[in-house]
Amino acid sequence: MHSAEALFDKQVDPADVEAFLGRVVGDTSAWVATTMAMIGDRLGLWQALADTRATTSAELAERTGTVERYVREWLSSMAAHGYLTYDPDTGRFALPAEHVPVLAAEGPAFFGGFHHALYGLASMLGPVVEAFRHGGGVPLTAYTEDWWHGLERATSSWFDHLLPEVWLPAMPELDLALRRGADVADVGCGRGRALIRLAEAYPAGRYVGFDVHEESIAAARANAEAAGVADRISFECLDVTAGIPGDYDIITTFDVIHDAVDPLGMLRVIRSALRPDGHYVCLDINASHRLQDNTGPLSAYFYGVSVLFCLTTSLAQGGEGLGTCGFNEHTARRMCAEAGFGTVRRVDVDNPFNILYDITI
């Protein structure tokens, strides 16, 4: 270990150390704020504050069935971080109206699903540290319901709002095919929210979802029943490595390829199951193949989630381990060409999280 004095002897400017220390304090504070936001989501505190009326800690505790002393400390933390406002004259806290869509109302800007998912990822820290030491990874079966449910909530807002309203109108050929009635497969369908939304918006279609995670398939079937679209959707627990049953007009993957054990093999399987005039719709992470271009909070988030889920679950199965940023546009174009696709078109949608591709033979 080097002492601070020894480091300063190497011409380290103490002011630079102080500046970086300030940044680390801020980053650490942000982690605590995120953790508090997770708690607020889990306990329904944000939803109880969504009407934006100022409230005391006692009133909020009574409305949510929680203990006032904990609620008071939580409110203080969120006010200190600027998520809430505080009136010292009345002792009341309020959630500003512009914060409601992000923290309390499930829509395109809602981040509570990600907070819920991160709550689930926290329990994976121990197994991931062991993977650092010994290799391998953490299998899908180790992840808790909080992760899967949080991920469903996070992505459902995209499927409910962006898929029918933004993404498909930007691909008019697919929109027309779906309206006429298309055979559609979703590979890595998770809990089925994308297909359910498609079945609601385009009832003439026929839909099937494939996923290797049994619990997700069970949830997808229940979700389809609850949505009243089970008559036109089926879900199968299947590893598509050996092939996708049937052939399709449209095949979709939503943030799946970068997680795959064998991403090139999966692309080849998708290519073989696509009809000659079909379309492969691929949504994946908006990142660069150049590490130096992947900077800032969102890229740091991507790499962190990769360590805790995307990378480690692939490595747990002896996979390639692309990682969250691994299926970037450069890699996507190269792999799709190797898989036998002819055209890869980046769809013109503005999304900081993802790139949308319309891929054809």
TrEMBL record:
Transmembrane segments: none
Domain Methyltransferase: from-to ranges: 180-292
Domain S-adenosylmethionine-dependent methyltransferase Rv2258c-like winged HTH: 34-103
Domain of life assignment: Bacteria
Molecular function (Gene Ontology), one example: methyltransferase activity
Matches recorded under CDD domains: AdoMet_MTases
Protein keywords: Methyltransferase, Transferase
GO biological process, one term: methylation
A Pfam family hit: Methyltransf_31
Gene3D superfamilies referenced in this protein's UniProt entry, alphabetically: Vaccinia Virus protein VP39 (3.40.50.150), Winged helix-like DNA-binding domain superfamily/Winged helix DNA-binding domain (1.10.10.10)
Name of the featured protein: Methyltransferase domain-containing protein
The species this protein was found in: Actinomadura rudentiformis
